[in-house]
């Protein structure tokens, strides 16, 4: 049935309410109510109605003011988050300016080295030209001398040969005459004596000329000159070779310097790209916060616009305000632990790319790691299951107050490598659930880095975490001129997916990090960084430090945080916890540090219970 007839009781109730409402607003006169006793009773009833309405209106106003105040406080928190992001952005911009200045100076240095190399090449060419020219002239001059001597020798030999030819002619003529005389003389041989005498004389002359020819054809001097020429040429060529080698060595050194400068330029370029990535991420977060603040302001304005002028009814304004408070994690004074157990889900904020703590080995696989193991154990203790709110690590505490986008639900708790720090606004911490060391990591086999003292002039990476900066301060490491160990570069990473690759690829020379974040990556064969990066033994911090679980510092979380502490106290004594620690950290570190050991006003379970008691008393 779409409609039904109103019952008699409902009609009487409606009439009664109308009468009471009319009575509350009417003026009771003697004329209207002549009976004094009845009028007096009605006046008392009217007074009670008006007092009740006043009380209800006051309570409604107080409730609404409290809701508006809490929403404005949350706007203040978001503004604080935005300011923190802006401070990070200013630091990144300043670092970019420093890197740009260094890049410019290094490029200028490289240009100067290139110009110097060009001059050296010109000098080398001139030296080689002069050396070759001198060598050529010496060789030509020596060869000309040899040619002249050879020509003289040839002329002398020619003269000797001409004499031999004349002698041969004379001998031939004498032989002819001897033959004629022999024919005539017959038995007479007197003419032969003359011929024989001439032949003898001719023979002597021939011997003499042969000796002279031997002397003229002696090339010993020429051989000596050739030997001297060879030695001279070799000496010149050796000098040329030495000059060339010297110039090549100088040129090689210059180009080595150029390569080093180019390497510095490349490293600075990589750092600039990393800084730009961080800056882009920071700007995105600022935009998210501005979106939240804008959405809150709009919804508060819309809720205030529906306020009735006379405050007779506040329900119209309370409804959107309560809905908005629920989106921001307010529980309307309801116990959060009861809500978690009622819904059966514990919403845990984690960084999904924290290798060793909360990460996926392959896309699509469930999250795993040290923090994930603790989260599942806590959920089992509470009798619920985990629902992970995946968010960048430095935004995890902000997820206690808002979802990534307006309209979603915030997280109940943070379990994500969180060292307690008063820099996180409106956050309360549990007891320590794991202790750890701060270690120095390097590329495998890099013997130039054996301790933090070797970081002078190096590029260092850290996680964008107040605790990491505190460790640097305690060690005197920084980029300032007054730093005891001055770095060439310092990169603070918010994107946890880059903190292993940046070291393996050489963007930074070393990384200071929590041991669990690098232990699995360095030592597990399934890690993509296995055999590429390694951690050095020892603790860089003065003492061990710890991670805590965190909730928003609201009274509604008092029982939840107390139950978390009871879980931690029990779980730390179990074999399951020891197995988790040894697998993800390589060891179980025992310590007695707690919130009271740390500086600053850090809130814990006792503080939340005090807040709850004060709220209940009010």
TrEMBL record:
<dbReference type="GO" id="GO:0016020">
    <property type="term" value="C:membrane"/>
</dbReference>
<dbReference type="InterPro" id="IPR004089">
    <property type="entry name" value="MCPsignal_dom"/>
</dbReference>
<keyword id="KW-0175">Coiled coil</keyword>
<feature type="domain" description="Methyl-accepting transducer">
    <location>
        <begin position="57"/>
        <end position="212"/>
    </location>
</feature>
<dbReference type="GO" id="GO:0006935">
    <property type="term" value="P:chemotaxis"/>
</dbReference>
<protein>
    <submittedName>
        <fullName>Methyl-accepting chemotaxis protein</fullName>
    </submittedName>
</protein>
<dbReference type="InterPro" id="IPR001638">
    <property type="entry name" value="Solute-binding_3/MltF_N"/>
</dbReference>
<feature type="coiled-coil region">
    <location>
        <begin position="86"/>
        <end position="113"/>
    </location>
</feature>
<dbReference type="GO" id="GO:0007165">
    <property type="term" value="P:signal transduction"/>
</dbReference>
<dbReference type="Pfam" id="PF00015">
    <property type="entry name" value="MCPsignal"/>
</dbReference>
<keyword id="KW-0807">Transducer</keyword>
<dbReference type="Pfam" id="PF00497">
    <property type="entry name" value="SBP_bac_3"/>
</dbReference>
